[in-house]
Write a structure and sequence with these properties.
Number of strands: 0
Number of helices: 7
Distance between the termini: 83 Å
Number of domains: 1
Largest sheet: none
Length: 233
Amino acid sequence: MSKTWPHRERHTVDRTNWLRAAVLGANDGVVSTASLIIGVAAAGAARGEILLTGVAGLVAGAMSMAAGEYVSVSSQADTESADLARETRELDEDPAGELRELAGFYVKRGLTPDLARQVAAQLTEHDALGAHAREELNIVEITQARPVQAALTSAATFSSGAAMAILPAIIAPLHLIPPLVAGCGLVALAGLGAASARVGRAPMLRPVLRVTLWGALAMAVTAAVGMLFGAVG
């Protein structure tokens, strides 16, 4: 009787779907909301107008991120479903041809033709569609499109990032809102870069520099636009 051994290793690739959506959402939440607040504050707006801008940016951004992720990932899911349906038809109509095709993939990977046919036959008997999905379509469970998960993750992380930009604007003196929001935003972005690197088990320096430099540039440009319009007004 054959024995199966549990697979105890944990890999980061199974986090790809939600990690990408989480990093994108949180980064966008911090950068866009902090930039909005800094730009409006630099134009000389009152505290109420600044906070209204921040909250409106949070709500609009979270909904936009959720909708965008859902639509884009749904398109990917639709494509995967169509390919799987076509593969199912081909397996029903020409099982022998599909078996030869599957064996061909294993020959390309380095197996001998005889061994490739044996492997293909056993995998076909076990799960024909799953085998073809992996080898022919590059569709596996851990990277399969999940629209709802991506949408909810993006909305939640965007809101969290935006909240980190709004809180300093609530408690800071009016004239200190731009520098404090910028400072808190950059700290949040650095933490986000470090956290995403840790979750993905990657070196931290590059992602931290990447998110903070782009965030600082966005805030600086928006502050300049705000001061320009404030001076004109």
